[in-house]
Structure prediction request, 117 residues.
Amino acid sequence: MHARATFGQWGEDEACRHLESHDYKIICRNYRCRMGEIDIIASKNAEIVFVEVKTRKTLKFGIPAEAVTKAKQTKIHATALHYLQDNHQYFKKFSFDVIEIVVEGDKFRLNHIPNCF
Prediction:
């Protein structure tokens, strides 16, 4: 596995630990279909939460959430709708979250932004 993929996988692992520590149940990781990919699908309080994880080593190019552009959001929406249809969850309440992780030396800062798009 490439270093970049390993770093991204580590970020997703940390995001899952964070979600689980806040009573989310992880349903699926790296859901893929022809529409795109969703990093984490979780549930809490009968709501399905689609989570995009952005992990960075530097803020040189802006905060991680800024990388979730309108085009990326549109792709995530389409992928989420495909997931809901594919899993017969038509009438479930759902939301879209972003989890930012910024690594600073041997520590990291995690910011969970719920229902942000």
